[in-house]
């Protein structure tokens, strides 16, 4: 589709789409092959390496869902005698004598020949006699064996991420240990002679390294082990030493030093160790993106140096790659559609991600607004954002009130990014 007359087109015929780049990356990545056995409670945030099948029924017996009285429907139009009680963990008699009701508490076993439980609010007790005011239905308030979990059902699939609900489900089934994927080892370094660690003074021409802190905190996760390799100088030897130090890692991530600048040794060093792709991806911010396959089955991402570009490429390419390597089933990131507050201009040709905030307007309606300056070195507008607005390749911007696609940062994972 041709853009409207007078609109600058940002399309680059050599650029790939995000989907093409992702497909290429996933086609060469290998999931980690080793796994370990953990206690279920320690498996939080890990990826299951096995299917887990239910071996017990939950509940294992007919259990009361209410505090009340177990009875037989055929008898409950008469006055019943309260006889015995069944508490959770302390079952009562298993049969009811004629015209009796058994006191039962929530979670307690119901006698085999009772066919309903009347909740205590619907009955009147006069000394040891029970008058049912509201007839229960057949089977009411009795949880049948297996109504929560049936024997043989799959509780967890291989590749599922284990969250609190999975931990509860496994525990409810009596599972104490589970086999999970080993933690993926990821080494991270920053490149640039201008970079200084926070805490040290800056000399003329220097800036603080923010990308390493950004990447280390974005990727912090129970399923991975991060190795911080620090700041690497813009020399071939510096870059070589960093890769040597990253020897135990399955994934190496650097930022900076992958453009065509004279001091960019990353591409050169990676080429000598394996295969390197330098891709222009039709997105803003975020090009170029370097992806390599190193010796010893290691993979490599070279992210752009500008902090916001590093953050967005990490979200879009590195996070899905890590999930894939951890053995996770592929997930699509859900988006929302919200009215834009203000207006946005854009040149067609690239997908554009704008840092933005979802908030309520004066009429108490949810709207989305950009957080201001969108240059890729402006971290402030990333920090103030809680989402990204995604403008499609062909979009030429959006007007005030127009519905736009929004991806809350929460949708990418747990943290603010
Ligand atoms: P480069 O890709 O190395 O040419 O860097 C592009 C821009 O990002 C330059 O302005 C760099 O100073 C800046 N930059 C590179 N690495 C970092 C970093 N780790 N932290 C902050 N800014 C960086
Ligand atoms: Mg640099």
Question: Your description of this structure?
Answer:
It is a single chain. With 417 residues, this protein is an alpha+beta fold. The chain folds into four domains: 18-34 and 182-325, MoaB/Mog-like domain (Molybdenum Cofactor Biosythetic Enzyme, Chain A, 3-Layer(aba) Sandwich), CATH 3.40.980.10; 36-57 and 147-181, Molybdopterin biosynthesis moea protein, domain 2, CATH 3.90.105; 63-143, Beta Complex (Molybdopterin biosynthesis moeA protein, domain 3); 336-412, Beta-clip (Beta Barrel), CATH 2.40.340.10. 17% of the residues lie in helices and 30% in strands. It contains seven helices and 28 strands. A six-stranded mixed β-sheet has the order 7-4-6-5-9-8, with no helix packed on it. It has a six-stranded mixed β-sheet with strand order 16-13-17-21-20-18, with helices on both faces. Strands 19, 22, 24, 25, 26 and 28 form a six-stranded mixed β-sheet that branches. Helix 3 packs parallel to helix 6 (307-325). The protein is elongated. The two termini are 33 Å apart. Bound molecules: adenosine monophosphate and magnesium ion. Magnesium ion binds next to loops.
Descriptive key words:
single chain, binds magnesium ion, alpha+beta, Molybdenum Cofactor Biosythetic Enzyme, Chain A, six-stranded mixed β-sheet, 417 residues, 7 helices, 28 strands, binds adenosine monophosphate, elongated, Molybdopterin biosynthesis moeA protein, domain 3, Molybdopterin biosynthesis moea protein, domain 2
